[in-house]
Amino acid sequence: MMTLNKRIWTIFMQNWQHTLTYWSVFFSFGLSISFLGPTILDLRCQTQSTLQEITCVFFSQQFFMLIGSSVGGLFKKTQTCALLALFTSTLLISVVFAIVPLCHSVFLLAVALAVSGQAMGIIDTIANVQLVKIYQKDSAVFLQVLHFFIGLGALVSPLIADPFLSETNCVVGAENGTSELRHLRNTLGRTSGHNWSRYHLLTEGIVVTQVSYAFWIMAVINLPVPIVVFALMQYERTPSCCGTRSPRLLEQEGLAMKTWGQGKGEPENPHTEDHGGLFSCCRNGVLRTLSTFTIGIHILGGLVLFMTDGITGVYSVFVYSYAVDPPMSLPHRTAGNLASVFWAAITVGRLVSVPLSCKVRPVHILIANLAGMIITTLLLLILYKDSVFLFVGTFLLGLFLSSIFPCMLAYTEDILDYQGCVTTVLVTFAGTGEMVLQIVVGLIIYSTGNYSFLLCSMIVSCIGFTLFFALLLFQHMHR
C-alpha cells in the first residue's frame, strides 16, 4: 500500500500542472450547473415572461450540454487542442455569466445558456478523458477529486445567488407572498413535467431585482479558471492546435508511459489518439474494427451511467415536490433543505472516495454503491411517511451515487486498455440519462402523483444494478 501511494504521488508530481488545471475547470462546471434553479424566478421577472416560457431555458442548457459532451472528445488529439478548448469554454462561461443580466427576452437568455451548456459539455468530456489518459490505471483517485470540484462549485453558486434573490415578486404590482415564491423557486426543475399553468404571476410592470449582481460576482469568481488554463498553454509553449506536439509535451507523455510501464508492465496503447469524440468513433472505419466485446462494454457501461446519472438528476429535481405534498406534507422551508442535503452528500461522498480509491478497486466500490442505492430507495419507498428517514435516506442516496460516475470511467477504461473512446461515450450516455429521465419521470409524476417519484427511482436503481451485473458477466465471458 505504501508503494501504491508513493507511485500515485510520483505520477501526480510529474503532471501536477495539468491535473490542477483539469480540477479547476470542473469547479467552473459546477458553478454553471446549479445557478439556474435558485435564480429562475428573478430571471422570469427580468425577461417578463411566464413560468412556461422561462422553464424552456432549462432544456436549452441541458440539450446543448449533451451536444458538447458528444463533440468534446474531438479536441483531445493533442494536449494543446484540449487546453485551447478548455480555455475557450471556461472563458465563455464567464462571458455568459456577465451577459445574462443583459438578456431581457427569453430567446436571448436561452441562446446564452445554450452557449454555456455547450461549454459545460466540452469541459465534462475533455477533463475526464485527459485525466484517464495521464493516470490510466491510477485514474480512479484523480477522477474522484475531479468530480468533487463539481460538487464544490454547485454548492458555492447558490450561496452567491441567495443574498440577491427577491423575497417578494420582483414585478411591482404582483401580490405573491414570500412563502409562495420560495415554494415556486424550490419546485422549479430542469423538466417540463410540472403544471405551471396553475401559477399566475404578472409579466408586465416595473422589474425590481438585484440578481444581476450575483451573476457578475460569479463571472469574476470564474475568471481565474481560464487564466490558469491560458497560463498552462503558455507553459507548454505549443503554438498549433493540430500540429506536432512540443518537446515538453512529448517528454511529459514519455514520463506517463514510463510510469505506466513500471506499474502494469506494458506500454500505453499506441493507437490511443486515433479515437476522438463520439462521432469519430463511428467514422473512418473505426466502428468496423471494434470487436463485439468492445462495443458491448461501451453500451453496457453507458447504460449503467444513463440510469445512475438519471437518478441523480431526477432526485435533485423532484424530492422537494414529493416532500411538500401528502402524505409527507413538510413545510416549504424544511423541504427546501432536501436538495442541499443531497448535493452536500454527493460532495462529501466524492471527498471520502479519494482515499478509498487508493485501497479498493473501482469494481468493488461500484458493487457497494449500486447495492446501497437499491437498498436506500427501497427503504425510502417502504418508509414513505417518515419525514426523518427522508432526510437520512436523501443523504445516504447522495453518498452511494457520488462515486459511481468516476469509478465507472476508471473501470471501463481499464477493461479496454485505455483506448480513450469509451470515456466520451460514457459521458454522453450519462448526460442523456440525466436529461431524458427527468422528462419521463416528470410526465409520470404529473399523471399519477408524487408518490410515483420514489417508485420510479426504485425501478431505475434496479435496472442500473442489473445492467452492471450484465457488464460483469459479459466481461467474464470474454475474458
CATH architecture of the largest domain: Up-down Bundle
- CATH topology of the largest domain: the name is Growth Hormone, Chain: A
Q: Give the biggest sheet.
A: none
What is the count of DSSP helices, taking H or I runs of 4+ residues?
21
- Approximate helicity band: over 70%
CA-atom Rg in angstroms = 22 Å
How would you characterize this protein structure?
- With 479 residues, this protein is an all-alpha fold.
- The chain has 2 domains: 232 residues, Growth Hormone, Chain: A, CATH 1.20.1250; 208 residues, MFS general substrate transporter like domains (Growth Hormone, Chain: A).
- Helices cover 75% and strands 0% of the residues.
- It has 21 helices and no strands.
- Helix 17 packs antiparallel against helix 18 and helix 19 runs antiparallel to helix 20.
- It starts with a helix and ends with a helix.
